[in-house]
Each structure stands twice: as C-alpha cells, then as structure tokens.
C-alpha cells in the first residue's frame, strides 16, 4: 500500500505536469471508485483545472479552481500512471482524467477511491488524521506525548492514522529497525532515550524514502527513473530470511496484533 513517501513522490512529480491545465475529458469504468453518479462527476470536472496537488497522510488532494477537492486514497494495490494511451501499462484502469492527449490513469482502485468534495467537506473528512511526521512543528516533545500515553505496540501505534499520519506496514518496520526496537514493544514501556531514537529514525527513514521515490516500483510516467528507488534500500520489510545488514543473522517475520511485521530478533530489542 502506498504510504507517505510514495504519495509525496506522486505529489512532487504531478504538480509540474498537471497544475493549471484545463481538464478536457474524464472516463469512469468503475462507478464504485467515485462518490457520485458518473454524469455528475464528469460535469463537475469538465473544464476545471488543478490549481495544485497536495498530500495529507496517504491521501492526495487535487485542489480545483472550482473550489472543489478531489481526494485520492490508493489503498492496497492502487497506483497511478501519467502519459499517453499508448504508454499506459496493461493494467485495469478505473478512472482516467485527460488533458488533451495526456492522461492520468488511476489503476487498481478496487479498494481505493477518488472522491470529489467541497473544500469544507474535505477538511472535515481529514480532521480525524494525526499530525504529519515530517512537519517542523511535530517536535520530539509532541511525539513523546503521543507515544507515552499509548499502551499498544509500536507496530499498531505507528500505523494508526489517528495517532501519526502517513505511516503503514513498510515504514513502521523500517523505522523500528533503524531505531533498534522491536515492533512488538509496548509504547508506554519505552525509555526516554528509546523514544528519542524512534523519533529521529522516523524522520530519517521517511525523508530518505521520499528522496528515493518510495518503495513502489511502478514508474509514474515513461522515463521515470525515481519512483520505486527506495525498494532496494529497505532493510527489513518483506525480507524474511535475508541476512540483517547490521549483524548478518536471518531476518524474521512476526505477526504483531494481526499485522505482518519484519525485524531482526538479534539487533532489535
């Protein structure tokens, strides 16, 4: 599932390509992916332009000059591709937004969605989300307060979008490994030094993953050499049985509160 770095990478790459351009057409092949009848959706998008693409947690927000907001959540298996019809990958497309002969294909939205809202509605829907982990105002003190009052495991706490926004299965494991902490540790039992390590690891891992285009390897457009560049840099996620980069022992998979998790049982404690 795309997480903060993947969606931030999409935001950075899409803004210079679609901002300010009027939408010429759009097509919906799966009505359940949107939140209104197709004809109404098409009518409200026709001729509108995207002022800017923003990100909130794992969502992309396409802010339109009509004051409407398209909210995208790719969920499990979702992705996007921008380009011509000839360049489009052989995947099932649920929604297509077009700017002349250039199209933004929304792929794999079986669980995800692309919903159109008024600005006030969008703000209300996103209000339940926790703070952004890379914002300058999200200090170590704020982070520690959130962690110390939580009695769950690190795994379940880090992926809880109402606690901290944008982290999922992949980066929760990478953050814990960087901090030398097991994902199964209980938050309220962490020492001050461990919380500080966790905070710094979170900021470092998410920033580095964004810089390398996230871990999802499907390019956003033809010639995209950035997207997916972090996949080879993941140290534990989905690497069960591979040698740990720190100690050489085999990495393990442990289910923590029903969520799959990868770690080194020797380097993390």
TrEMBL record:
Cofactor(s) for this UniProt protein: Zn(2+)
Record keywords, A-Z: DNA damage, DNA repair, DNA-binding, Glycosidase, Hydrolase, Lyase, Metal-binding, Multifunctional enzyme, Zinc, Zinc-finger
GO MF terms, alphabetically ordered: 8-oxo-7,8-dihydroguanine DNA N-glycosylase activity; class I DNA-(apurinic or apyrimidinic site) endonuclease activity; damaged DNA binding; double-stranded DNA binding; zinc ion binding
Record-annotated FPG-type domain positions: 235-269
Keyword DNA-binding: yes
Catalytic activity: 2'-deoxyribonucleotide-(2'-deoxyribose 5'-phosphate)-2'-deoxyribonucleotide-DNA = a 3'-end 2'-deoxyribonucleotide-(2,3-dehydro-2,3-deoxyribose 5'-phosphate)-DNA + a 5'-end 5'-phospho-2'-deoxyribonucleoside-DNA + H(+); Hydrolysis of DNA containing ring-opened 7-methylguanine residues, releasing 2,6-diamino-4-hydroxy-5-(N-methyl)formamidopyrimidine
GO process terms (BP): base-excision repair
SMART domains listed in its UniProt record: Fapy_DNA_glyco, H2TH
Ranges for domain Formamidopyrimidine-DNA glycosylase catalytic: 2-106
Pfam families the record matches: Fapy_DNA_glyco (PF01149), H2TH (PF06831)
PANTHER family in the cross-refs: FORMAMIDOPYRIMIDINE-DNA GLYCOSYLASE
Family in the record: Belongs to the FPG family.
Name of the molecule in the record: Fpg/Nei family DNA glycosylase
Species of origin: Paenibacillus piri
């Amino acid at each position: 599932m795309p997480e903060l770095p993947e969606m931030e990478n999409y935001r950075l790459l899409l803004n210079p390509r679609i901002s300010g351009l009027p939408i010429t057409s759009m097509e919906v092949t799966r009505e359940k992916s949107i939140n209104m009848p197709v004809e109404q959706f098409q009518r409200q998008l026709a001729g509108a332009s995207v002022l800017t693409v923003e990100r909130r947690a794992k969502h992309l927000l396409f802010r339109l000059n009509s004051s409407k907001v398209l909210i995208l959540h790719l969920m499990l298996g979702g992705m996007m591709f921008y380009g011509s019809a000839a360049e489009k990958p052989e995947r099932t497309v649920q929604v297509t937004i077009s700017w002349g002969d250039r199209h933004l294909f929304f792929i794999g939205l079986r669980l995800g969605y692309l919903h159109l809202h008024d600005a006030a509605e969008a703000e209300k829907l996103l209000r339940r989300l926790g703070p952004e982990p890379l914002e300058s105002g999200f200090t170590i003190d704020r982070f520690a307060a959130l962690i110390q009052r939580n009695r769950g495991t690190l795994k379940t706490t880090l992926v809880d979008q109402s606690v901290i926004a944008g982290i999922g299965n992949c980066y929760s494991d990478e953050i814990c490994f960087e901090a030398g902490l097991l994902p199964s540790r209980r938050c309220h039992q962490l020492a001050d030094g461990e919380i500080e390590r966790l905070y710094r690891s979170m900021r470092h891992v998410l920033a580095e993953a964004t810089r390398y285009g996230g871990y999802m390897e499907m390019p956003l457009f033809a010639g995209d050499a950035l997207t997916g560049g972090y996949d080879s840099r993941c140290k534990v996620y989905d690497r069960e049985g591979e040698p740990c980069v720190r100690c050489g022992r085999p990495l393990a998979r442990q289910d923590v509160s029903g969520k799959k998790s990868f770690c080194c049982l020797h380097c993390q404690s």
